[in-house]
Design a protein that fits this description.
The protein has 252 residues and is of the alpha+beta class. The protein folds into two domains: 149 residues; 87 residues, no CATH class. The chain contains seven helices and twelve strands. The strands form four sheets. Strands 2-6-9-10-11-12 form a six-stranded antiparallel β-sheet, sandwiched between helices. A two-stranded antiparallel sheet has the order 1-7. Strands 3-8 form a two-stranded antiparallel sheet. The N and C termini lie far apart (45 Å).
């Protein structure tokens, strides 16, 4: 779609929305954001398209009138917004996808990139923690955007999660995550760091206690070899390499 047509469609879409929605969002383009894709994490490794909808996982006080795909510009912001990845890591959940597939956590998450012409950045009146997690919405503002085709940017899994007791209510949580960025891709990690194609280890402290996506305590970022990556993935997230739809029997 041409830029002019997309702008016209978005303008008409916004005019159909509530005043509260229009007053509490910012329109975002690749030019204003500084990147051509927004990111979405999922442990479903076979998503061929995303459709905007109102998720059941909305927080208390969060808008439920606008169908959207929740995204963020950076991986760390995605993890902050995802919020339940430690539950995935500990519990190995299993769900049924919208198209009826059995989807089981395989030890990590696919990093999907979603190209866009226009996105919406809600403020805290629409999403209570939006300023903290840098949440962005992809919405269906015309027929062309009722589905969004993703690009696979890479994979991420937690290799080590360490809880350290402290003289306070909650322990410190140290996460060592392993990231693969696919050839030809670049990943916005967050904290003004972009990872080129390759294999990386990122260490964070108290990721979910961060006041903002702008102040995450990133302790270390280092590149590793493919052999090191494969060894770690085999132990922690072996099935994450299976980038196709699997029969249910594969998980028996």
């Amino acid at each position: 779609m041409s830029t002019a047509d997309a702008k016209k469609a978005m303008t008409e879409y916004l005019l159909r929305q509530t005043e509260e929605m229009r007053l509490n969002m910012t329109l975002v383009t690749p030019e204003t954001l500084g990147q051509s894709m927004l990111l979405h994490l999922s442990y479903d490794n076979a998503i061929s398209s995303f459709q905007p909808y109102v998720t059941k996982r909305t927080a208390e006080g969060e808008d439920r009138t606008v169908p959207r795909i929740s995204t963020a510009p950076s991986l760390l912001a995605c993890l902050m917004g995802y919020q339940t990845e430690l539950n995935d890591f500990h519990g190995r959940p299993q769900v049924t996808s919208a198209d009826g597939r059995k989807v089981e956590f395989a030890g990590g998450w696919i990093i999907y990139g979603l190209p866009f012409q226009y996105a919406i950045r809600p403020n805290n009146k629409l999403v209570p923690d939006a300023s903290r997690t840098d949440e962005h919405w992809l919405i269906a503002y015309d027929k062309m955007t009722t589905q969004h085709t993703p690009v696979r940017v890479g994979k991420v899994f937690y290799d080590r999660v360490t809880y350290k007791g402290q003289d306070k209510e909650y322990p410190d949580i140290y996460i060592e995550m392993v990231i693969e960025v696919h050839p030809g891709m670049s990943l916005n990690l967050g904290m003004d760091t972009n990872l080129p194609a390759g294999y990386w280890i990122v260490e964070t402290k108290n990721l979910h206690d961060s006041r903002s996506y702008k102040s995450i305590d990133v302790r270390r970022v280092r590149e590793i070899t493919k052999a090191d990556y494969e060894q770690r993935k085999t132990l922690t997230a072996g099935l994450l390499s299976l980038d196709q739809v699997l029969p249910a029997s594969a998980f028996w």
